[in-house]
Please model this.
Amino acid sequence: MAEEMRVLLEYADKINPEIADEYVKIGGYVGLEKARKMDPNDLIQEVRSSGLRGRGGAGFNAGMKWSFVPKNAEIKYVVCNLDEGEPGTYKDRIICEKNAQALLEGMAICGAAIDSNQGYIYCRGEYPFIVKLLKNAIKSAKELGALGDFNIEVRMGAGAYVCGEETALIESIEGHRGEPRFKPPFPGVAGLWGVPTVVNNVETFACLPSILTNGAAWFAGIGAAKYPGTKVLTLTGDTNNPTYFEVPTDYILRDVIYKLGGGVKGGKKLKAVQVGGTSGAFIPESNLDTPIDFDSMGAIGAALGSGAVFVMDETRDIVDIVSRISKFFEHESCGKCNPCREGTFRCREIMEKINSGKATQKDIDNILLLSRVMKKAALCGLGQAAPIPIESTIKHFADEYARKIV
Amino acid sequence: MADYKDIIASCKDQKGGIIEAFHALQQEFNYIPREALTEAARVFGISEAQAYGVATFYSYLSVEKRGKYIIRMCESAPCHVAGADELLKAIEKELSIKVGETTSDGKFTLELTECVGQCQATPVITINSEPLFNVTAEVLPQVLSAYK
Amino acid sequence: MITLTINGKEIQVPKGTMVLDACQQAGADIPTLCYDPDLRLAGSCRMCVVEAKGRPNLMAACVSPAENGMVIETESPDVVESRKIILELLLARHKLECHTCERDGSCKLQDYCYRYGVTDSRYLNEMPHFSKEDPNPFIKRDYDKCIMCTKCVRVCEEITGAQAINVEDRGHHAKISTVFDGKLADSTCVFCGQCVMVCPVGALTSKVSAGKGRSYQTQSVLTTCTYCGTGCTFELNVKDDHVVGVTSVRDSELSPVNKGALCVKGRFGWDFIESEDRLTTPLIKENGELRPASWDEALDFAANKIKEIKAKNGPDALALFSSARATNEENYLAQKLFRAAIGTNNVDHCARL
Model:
């Protein structure tokens, strides 16, 4: 079996994430100490030159994101996105369960960089046990004095995938319907309660302590040059090894499936793999030799996204799965903008029609046209990404559709 | 049973924390009673219509009475390929209710959910947010019998 | 100032100008459904999308600040395709009964479908069923025609302040609703009808005007509301010399006091105009019976009675109740008359209630 490279999860199951002291004993909170002694501009530069890019959806350079925060603002917030709702994804949960203190430390490092002493963790409503764990972890870190004057409050979502979008997440923390805001203004300028706010996800924050401890150059040297570091993946579907892995970002998708995953379950052949969660493109066998990093995946029309890897064997009905996925987006559309609210609904209708063998080529044309408009005109990433599984399967698995249409 | 006013008051210092208050209310009542929604709107300084808009937006919040145990069946793609449809049918048969309904004894409410982030052991159901792994039609009666 | 190019035309606008305004300045007519200059921006209908060179997605003009050097096309093939599909999607959820709709001829959905030649929707299948009778005398809520622009929610919050409605549920199930989807009459609604004013389609209409004439059958007569001294401007909708409705004038030049906002009386209370019970002369009560009188006779009668009472029982036996239908200046004079000329502080006003 191929080797993982564990940075975030190096001490998984060896320390209790709720106890700050145990984390300190393995070298925790050294990065924060170092960060606090640095000039904030140098700190931001350090993170920027590490090449750390957001481990959520957009893959934006984290240091660059921080640099947009106005220096003179009186109040600023650090917000952690723990709303991982992409089906097949649970890596942020794993990072919390194995190494929650690294997340807290990473948030405090961000606080030092942008001069904020208040952080919020927005945890999805599906994880009440993580909320408990985090509250204990924060209490322990505060008691140890590890976080200094940096405070962290945990807020809970309530079953809304769209709240993984940073502005919808902010709306939800504010106690509103989780509807995305239009951008600009970006949260870095006007975010939570209208003040400058940095939103990063759990994995991004958790990378920071090791970057500070080992230096930007160390981090920049791991994995793919343009998307350095490691990535936590979760393997689901028809795999022999449905679990999580941490690998360098230049790891090849084929190796994820066949080496780490031990191949397709039951010795069957692979039909497709969907990376990045349910909004990701379906990747055919022919593209498996692609590294998992953001840009390499982008180059084959896919996305690394959340790092979920959903394996489908040769017996799987692609149209049926995409039909199910279209129902997911219908359920999760917030309903604010027309292309997404109406589009996800009609996509589901048409996909079900195709799946039930009642559709014609005209329906395929109609759904492709709708997909194009949703991608171009929807307000947020949800509506723009919802058609990707449809488009990518019509492209790569046309015969599966052809079989079902009349 | 705790008073809804006390529950809401315990959340009032969390700025914009009406969703926290709704969670706390659901811990006690399993749904958000009407008078509690009115009180929460007052405490957090928003209109009742807005509070209602928030309560109906999130799929884990309910303004309708539910059973003692809320079963949520995940139907996202990884659970779907692991047999979520068959399991759902088995649950419906076992409890003689459809999705969205509550058993006549008020014990179980059946809801659908999207991914709950436990995809290492599909298909997954949750009962009052506690995830249960690799649930099959065969083990279902035994699983449910643990909930009295 | 910043410079940008719109449909090949270079224009200059002040920093902070939105692309929508810049387009209008450049003479490009951008369709909008959720945009209202007096309300918080939503950016949600996506009808105003335009193409900015170098950007992968279309941008909603109403919420995008103009930037130096932007090159914008407002009717490119991508833009037109998106607008057409958005219109088709809206048609697929909109109960099409233009032939009996009050808003036929003054409906933005109809106008834009005409403009872009959208005759039919390829996405027509299941329709939402949100409509139900709301038992109130003023506002008809037909949410099967609603296109979810949320202007009604915003106007209710931001201009009227009643906060009676919001969006319930989410996604395709989302609809406009009062708390627990109750009747408007049981909510904080004050029936000002601002929601009817801003609704771009026939989802919210006046019950009082129903069936009495559409916009193209009526003439609008600009006038001042007589209900109180505020002096709101509105338009009486006149058909065949009969008043059949009231609409708002939102232009602040023409409607400086209220900019189109009205109260329930102004917007819905015009049916007194042709009421048979309407008083046309003063009346004097004699032996328990009211009889018509001239203004001179009635005023003399009242003045004499006031003098008589003051002489017999003193000024405090008299009291003034004045009306909000008079102006502030008239009310000032009325209290002055009672305090200075008659000599009593027994003064009150209906607006105090």
About this structure: The CA atoms of residues 74 and 110 of chain C lie 20 Å apart. The first strand of chain C starts at residue 2 and ends at 6. The first helix of chain C runs from residue 19 to 25.
